[in-house]
Amino acid sequence: MNQLEQSRIQVLSQIEQACLRVQRDPNTVQLLAVSKTHPSLSLREMYAVGQRSFGENYLQEALAKIEELQDLDIEWHFIGHVQRNKTKHLAEKFDWVHGVDRLIIAERLSSQRLETQKPLNICLQVNIDGQDSKDGCEPNEVAELVEQISRLPNLRLRGLMVIPAPNNVAAFADAKNLFDQVKSLHAQPQDWDTLSMGMSADLDAAIAAGSTMVRVGTALFGARDYSL
Ligand SMILES: *Cc1c(COP(=O)(O)O)cnc(C)c1O
């Protein structure tokens, strides 16, 4: 068994244990492999051992990998900061975009999604613990944004994405509350089923609080080298 396969089995088992501790069905938590900075070959190897969904943060790097790996049936997630002038590539090349935090971004993604494509899956990013430096809308903006984004034709609004400060596990419970509140809205989106939270260091706490998608990089691929 190679290193990547071993790491993946380990992470899947960690997810399963975290679910069982809180009486959750392990099938309700999806593993998104965060592959930023890692070469296409590593993604190909991860694919070969069963991984299908990959998350990327940097557009140019991601576009090169999407091109190089077009023979594989990968579900591509963009989890980085969404810049307004980059939405066209996101709309055309990805299956999911997690970092939507303004209506204008959602409108652009919807209008730039091709008619021949399935609707683009969206998570609304929320600045759940009031960090200055973080992207994401404010919690009190969620209800209105959900109503507005749900009306856009070429998007499927799936849920929320949060990146709390390290060790701020209490924020996961706040995110779960907000996620549940949307379900009680008058204009509840049809496919509201995704709470994207938890990374290598805090996936147990995220799962205990109700995460349905953990975004894991380091625990799968090893440490990132940004000097390359
Ligand atoms: C890099 C990144 C991850 C993965 O982080 P690890 O600590 O390596 O698991 C998850 N989510 C986002 C938004 C990221 O940018």
TrEMBL record:
N6-(pyridoxal phosphate)lysine sites (modified residues): 36
InterPro entries linked to this entry: Ala_racemase_N, PLP-binding_barrel, PyrdxlP_homeostasis
Cross-referenced SUPFAM superfamilies: PLP-binding barrel (SSF51419)
Cofactor(s) in the UniProt record: pyridoxal 5'-phosphate
Annotated Alanine racemase N-terminal domain residues: 22-224
Keywords, in A-Z order: Pyridoxal phosphate
MF annotations from Gene Ontology: pyridoxal phosphate binding
Classification via PANTHER family: PROLINE SYNTHETASE CO-TRANSCRIBED BACTERIAL HOMOLOG PROTEIN, PYRIDOXAL PHOSPHATE HOMEOSTASIS PROTEIN
Family from the record: Belongs to the pyridoxal phosphate-binding protein YggS/PROSC family.
Described function: Pyridoxal 5'-phosphate (PLP)-binding protein, which is involved in PLP homeostasis.
Name by which UniProt lists this protein: Pyridoxal phosphate homeostasis protein
Organism of provenance: Acinetobacter junii
